[in-house]
Amino acid sequence: MTKTAWITGSSSGIGRALAKRLVENGYKVAVSARNAESLAALAAEHPGRIAAFPLDVTDGEAVRKVANAVVAAMGPIDLAVFAAGSYTRDYAVDFSAERTRQMFDLNVLGTAHCLEAVMPGMIARKGGHIAVVASVTAYVGLPGAASYGATKAALNNLCEALHPELASHGVTLSVINPGFVATPLTAKNDFPMPFLVSSEEAAEIIAKALAGGKFEIIFPWKMAIAIRLLHALPHRLRFALTRKMLRS
Questions:
Q1: Less Cβ crowding at N or C end of the chain, within 10 Å?
Q2: What's the pTM value of the predicted model, to 2 decimals?
């Protein structure tokens, strides 16, 4: 029986590449994002396999309606991947609480709206898989990513807290912590991005790990090792290294 996946943040980047990969793996895929035109183009490339459901995940009521529409049109959601998010660099000299609020509204509360919409159905069916896209910045506070990293740390904590209870109901939960992936967001960066991978490479890694039911999917492996080593250092040594990342 063909499985149904729902992916948010799928107008570009990881979400879009993953939608294509899951179609290759036999899924029917519902794609959501704010860019309706991009979604329509993606659906047109895969008629009968990808369906577009435009959505702003910061609108909780809209999320609920779209989740219901996906189920009505395509059947119960077997795999939900919540990849909607944004990234804006921030620094102490021009720190903005409003900018931080906007990132939390999208990255954290937007994800919470989606979780709220799909968890009851999966719990009732005692089956399903949810994946939340976070980032390796969740491990360490990095200059220029104060607000962004805080949102991703929140998502990791949220997933760790929900995992045991969801598992007891037969629902699998994964958190995806990518390093640098070539997307429209990272294209704005004007600094070296070590171990950069393409969206297609990221999608292949994610799809394979999801099929294995892993909780944390962190890649590429070189970045995973580097960020974990940085996290393990005493603060004095860690700050000595992160100070080198400051922009002049």
A1: C
A2: 0.94
